[in-house]
Amino acid sequence: MIFVLGRLGQAFLVLLAAALVSFCLFRFVGDPVNNMTGQAASLAEREAMRAALGLADPVVLQFVRFVGKAVHGDFGMSYRFGQPVAGLVLERLPATLELSVVSMLIATGLGLPLGVWTALHRGSRLAQAVLAVSLVGIALPTFLIGIVLILVFSVRLGWLPSFGRGDTIQLGPWSTGLLTGSGLRSLVLPSVTLAVFQLALILRLTRAEMLEVMRTDFIRFARARGLHRGAIQYRHGLRNTLVPVVTIVGLQFGNVFAFSIIVETVFQWPGLGLLVIQAIQFGDIPVLAAYLVLVALCFAVINIAVDLFHLAIDPRIRISGGARGAA
Amino acid sequence: MSALLSVENLRVEIAARDRRLTAIDDISFTIGAGEILGVVGESGAGKSVTGTAILGLLEPPAALAGGRIAFAGRRIDTLDEESMRRLRGKEIAAVFQDPLTSLDPLMTVGEQLVETMLTHLPIKRKEAFARAEDLLRMVGLPAPRERLQAYPHALSGGMRQRVVLALAFCCNPRLIIADEPTTALDVSVQAQILDVLRRMCRENGTAVMLVTHDMGVIAEATDRVAVMYAGRLAEIGPTRALVEEASHPYTRGLMASIPSLTRRRDTLVQIPGAMPRPDAPVSGCAFHPRCPSAEARCRSERPPAFAVEASQVACWLADPARRSVSA
């Protein structure tokens, strides 16, 4: 319990730091009052506006106000759309979340078993081939994979759509593309593109960790105990492999979520990435600030989830965290 | 009495880049039912490799290259992996050197015991747990019922080695290969562990191959001793005979190098030189470059094992032809 509280405290600090950075964005890109008033505005008018916007207050007070509003989901108005930022972000969030979750499912669902398999069949030709291909997956830039997939499956074969999300269904505030045929078809290419690098990474990491674990003394002792091969490989080998692998999968999920920008651009996927690219081009600071805080929140949540997983699987953490244990 | 384990002309080779190195060079010995055989020698003499070969756990690049190993009248070096697995942990158990790394860190002590028993014995989970508790009590672990739920990291080195002993004994094996079971432990704990091992063997009639480089352990715990040198057997015989009047110059050197409390010397006695490595084998008797009594014959001809009373000695000094001449 102390352990969980500690982690929550850390997450809170991380979010605060992210909020500070977003807050600073506003101050580094010029004076908003200059942007909002015309050339003709007098100094007095400007000062009046400054006071009305609360920009005359001490910086600390401004920051506190910013954080207080952010907690309530209020990041102000987009310069470009003239709409509340929170609404814009929430509208785009489902597209990006669905894309990142599906590609991480593909990457983990294939990468983990393949990693285990290549570790257990170290010498075989097929395993060597899988490893060689995975190296290509690591080396190829994501945008290239996306373009090649579009060329093959959309342009040449015409099987799958090359851009957009297809039809979506509104479930309360959530618009999902997972329930329609065209939504699912649209999801295939971008999610595969996004998954390739992660798949290769997870595969190679799992293989390396599994090989490491299979060399340990307790695996040798498990063999000396005459346990079945399956029990040694999975109950002892894989379980010990999972601890570091889950950490990386969690962090990579954060990366996929935060940096799906390239894939969203290539496939014109109406998600956060696209929104952010456009916000950068237009200097739409409130959107960028909100995005920054959201990404930080996402990483914080994932980190806590990974920690909870470790807590569940690895008894050594339970002790060091000060929780109960048979010491 | 027919031997429980008989090793005949065992050879183990290690495949190096361009040639095959000999790790075990034609050794033969037997272990009777309930007998404790000590195996001593310097690091790299082949003690552990011999134990590993008996367990059928040699891993590439090491492999059996000749000879036969029979257990309870049945040849086991040619068994397939599955038959050997059934034998391991049930008939032939093992205790390894480092108790800190022999246990799976993610599994409770009780689970590891129960898992081993369920693999080999026709008993139910509940009975296995009851037996696990009894075993922990027998190896002298305090509060055995609570310890069943403990993870290895919560136990000290000595306690973990007790758990490893419980694992070795859990299926009532007829032979235990104990590879340096006390070397990694605190000196004060070594005697306790040795005591548990000896007591449980006497109670259950279990034979032990006790690999060690500690002459004190040999003198204290074993019935017979095999002295290994450079992958060969130098001498094997009753412990008492070897400790009191060894026939092989190497054994004599070993005995003389034990520091004595009663005979004080200013310097520690040592055998000059170093043991030949497998990649630079020596002609004739492997010990001749360091032997104080070496003669021309020792350099060219390898001595066979001569019987000297109850011992077997691989040294030309023990040649009966020669002894009758000198007598």
TrEMBL record, chain A:
The chain crosses the membrane at residues 12-29, 99-117, 129-153, 187-205, 242-267, 287-309. It holds the Pfam family BPD_transp_1. One of its GO terms (biological process) is transmembrane transport. GO terms for cellular component: plasma membrane. The keyword RNA-binding does not apply. Keywords: Cell membrane, Membrane, Transmembrane, Transmembrane helix, Transport. It is a multi-pass membrane protein. It is found in: Cell membrane. InterPro entries: BPD_transp_1_N, MetI-like, MetI-like_sf. Residues 93-310 form the ABC transmembrane type-1 domain. Signal peptide: none annotated. PROSITE patterns: ABC_TM1 (PS50928). Belongs to the binding-protein-dependent transport system permease family. This is Dipeptide transport system permease protein DppB. It comes from Methylobacterium symbioticum.
TrEMBL record, chain B:
GO terms for molecular function: ATP binding; ATP hydrolysis activity. Pfam families: ABC_tran (PF00005), oligo_HPY (PF08352). Its main location: membrane. It comes from the Bacteria. It is a peripheral membrane protein. CDD domains: ABC_NikE_OppD_transporters. Signal peptide: none annotated. Keywords: ATP-binding, Cell membrane, Membrane, Nucleotide-binding, Transport. GO terms for cellular component: plasma membrane. One of its GO terms (biological process) is peptide transport. It is found in: Cell inner membrane. The keyword Repeat does not apply. InterPro entries: AAA+_ATPase, ABC_Ni/Peptide_Import, ABC_transporter-like_ATP-bd, ABC_transporter-like_CS, Oligopep_ABC_C, P-loop_NTPase. SMART domains: AAA (SM00382). Residues 5-255 form the ABC transporter domain. Belongs to the ABC transporter superfamily. This is Oligopeptide transport ATP-binding protein OppD. The lineage of its organism: Bacteria, Pseudomonadati, Pseudomonadota, Alphaproteobacteria, Hyphomicrobiales.
